């Protein structure tokens, strides 16, 4: 995910299919911004720290830039390309004052107030308590896994973050959750 430098309502994310999405209303609705990429997908996205709708996307065809929030893309000039970071979710990461998070070997999201000397699982509200990523954002802490994306102000109680409209998934969402539950051993029958 990437967030606008000066408008907390505007954000982007890329999904596991390398599609890019943009919201203008703090995640209430999302629109695809991948159509003009012509055959390539975005695997990572970075927003400009100075300009609202300037974003860079890392693709199989190199780095692309959009100056209109992702509605159109073109190859980025070599100078000024931002670094696409690869976070280490298995290491303690400070996400707020006196709050560090990490994903353990069993894919549990852990929180700590003392950089890991003491810690506890923090996944209240998750449909499938398996974590893959987390980040501190203007919206709070966002974390995700195979059961969806979640947001929390303090990493205690989580609320599902709807990245796709409910009517777009319907029964498929239930089937996905069922099979993921079977895969991860939460459903055994």
Structural category:
mainly beta
Q: How many angstroms does the end-to-end distance come to?
A: 36 Å
Describe the biggest sheet? 4 strands, antiparallel
Number of domains: 2
**Element string (H = helix, E = strand):** EEEEEEEEEEEEEEEEHH
**Which value, in Å, is the CA radius of gyration?**
17 Å
Instruction: Say what oligomer this is.
Output: single chain
Q: How many helices in DSSP terms?
A: 2
What fraction, in percent, of the residue positions are helical?
under 10%
C-alpha geometry: globular
- Mean pLDDT comes to 87
Unreliable stretches (pLDDT < 50, length at least 5) are: none
The count of strands amounts to 16
Strand content: 25-35%
Strand sequence of the main sheet, in spatial order?
Answer: 1-2-3-4
Question: Could you list some keywords that capture this structure?
Answer:
single chain, 189 residues, mainly beta, 2 domains, 4-stranded antiparallel beta sheet, 2 helices, 34% strand, globular
How would you summarize what this structure contains?
The protein has 189 residues and is mainly β.
What does this structure look like?
This protein is mainly beta and 189 residues long. It starts with a strand and ends in a 6-residue tail after the last helix. The protein has helices at residues 166-169, 171-183, and strands at residues 2-3, 11-14, 20-23, 31-32, 42-47, 55-59, 62-66, 74-75, 93-96, 99-103, 109-112, 120-121, 133-137, 140-145, 148-152, 159-161. The model has no long low-confidence stretch (mean pLDDT 87). Strand 15 (148-152) and strand 16 form a beta hairpin. The chain is built from 2 helices and 16 strands. The protein is 9% helix and 34% strand. The strands form 4 sheets. Strands 1-2-3-4 form a 4-stranded antiparallel beta sheet, with no helix packed on it. The protein has a 4-stranded antiparallel beta sheet with strand order 5-6-7-8, with no helix packed on it. Strands 9-10-11-12 form a 4-stranded antiparallel beta sheet, with no helix packed on it. The protein has 2 domains: 2-75; 96-189, no CATH class.
């Amino acid at each position: 995910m990437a967030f606008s430098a000066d408008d907390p309502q505007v954000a982007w994310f890329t999904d596991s299919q390398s599609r890019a999405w943009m919201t203008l209303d703090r995640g209430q609705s999302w629109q695809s911004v991948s159509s003009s990429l012509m055959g390539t997908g975005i695997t990572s996205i970075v927003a400009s720290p100075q300009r609202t709708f300037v974003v860079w996307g890392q693709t199989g065809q190199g780095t692309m830039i959009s100056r209109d929030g992702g509605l159109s893309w073109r190859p980025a000039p070599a100078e000024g390309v931002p670094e696409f970071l690869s976070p280490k979710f298995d290491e303690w990461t400070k996400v707020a004052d006196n709050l560090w998070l990490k994903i353990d070997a069993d894919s549990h999201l852990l929180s700590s107030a003392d950089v890991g000397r003491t810690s506890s699982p923090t996944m209240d509200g998750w449909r499938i308590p398996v974590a893959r990523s987390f980040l501190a954002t203007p919206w709070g802490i966002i974390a995700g896994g195979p059961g969806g994306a979640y947001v929390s102000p303090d990493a205690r109680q989580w609320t599902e973050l709807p990245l796709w409209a409910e009517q777009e998934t319907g029964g498929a969402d239930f089937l996905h959750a069922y099979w993921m539950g079977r895969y991860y051993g939460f459903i055994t029958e």
